[in-house]
Structure formats: structure tokens, C-alpha cells
Amino acid sequence: MDILAVENYILEKLKKNLSPTLTYHGYHHTIDVAEAVLKIASSEGIEEEEPLILLKTAAFYHDLGFITTYRGHEEESCRIANLTLPSFGYSNPQIEKICGMIMATKIPQTPLTHLEQIIADADLDYLGRDDFWPIAHSLYEELREREMVPNIETWNQIQVKFLSSHQYWTASAQYWRKAKKQQYLDELCEITKHY
Prior knowledge:
Blueprint: H1 3-17, H2 27-43, H3 49-61, H4 73-84, H5 92-103, H6 114-123, H7 132-145, H8 152-165, H9 171-192
Helix pairs in contact: 1-3, 2-3, 2-6, 3-5, 3-6, 4-5, 5-6, 8-9
């Protein structure tokens, strides 16, 4: 498994093909998830090389489908993974695990394995981080550009609903992010109370 070649291939593809209107799901988000996945994996005691490579590969591929489609991008990411990963030395069972992890990032999240839980948490790591507000705003801009959300009031109500129903799956993400996420939810509830 040539993870460095995968990384170069994906980042080049994203740089060249992602729409500039993907203010949230841009190149930077993929890098953010790839870093978060390794941090969570380490804290969760994942030390073997193969699962770490599979996690990192899934993180790089998880939003690649955005180069061709917005809705159903996870399925498209899996389709591309199935086509391209054999040339990077990945076996069919490894690609199957990677696709399981990619699909675990689909909302609503339903991760089935520990590795799927790790990437699901990495994908939404920002919900409990200090950079929540600017990242959430970048998602609002992306959705507004696609006429999927009409205004900031509606967006804030969507965020209240989303944060209320969201859960972190790993003990590490719960420990690091749960309290801060609750703080943002409380702030959003206060904001939307006045609508």
C-alpha cells in the first residue's frame, strides 16, 4: 500500500478539480480529517501499520466524490477508490474496509467498526473545536451557494437540530470535544430563541 502516492494523487485531484464554491468541503477539509483521524487513532490505541494506513487512505478519499457530484459523493468516492486503489497496491478486502469507512462519514453517521467510528469522529471533529464558528460559516456559505439553505436564521436552526442529534463515537473524541460542542449548542439555542 503506497500511502504517499495515494496522498499525492488525491491532493492533486482535489486541487485541480474541486469547485471553488466548496468553501467547507475543500482541499483543507480533507487535510484536516487526515490529521484528525491519526490523532484519534493514536489516542484510541491503534498502533499497527495496516489499520493506520487504511484510516489515512479513507480520510484522503472520503470527499473525493465531490469532484463529480454533490449529493451521493460518498458513493462516488467509493467508486473511485475501487477503480484506483488496486494500482496503489491495495487488496480488495482492504478497499472494502476503506469504503466502509468512507460510508461511515455519511450523515446520519452509522459507523459499524472501531475504524469507522474513528473516521466518523474525525470528519466532524470541528464541532467541538475552537474553530467551530468560522468552519460552520464556511459550510453555510457552501450550502447557500447551492440554494440548500435560504438564510442564516434557517442555518442556525439546522445547526441546533444537528448538534442536538450528533454524537461522538470514540471515547477520545467524547473526552476532547463533547463539552465544547455542548457550549456551541447552548450558544446557538440562545441565538435561535430570538427568531
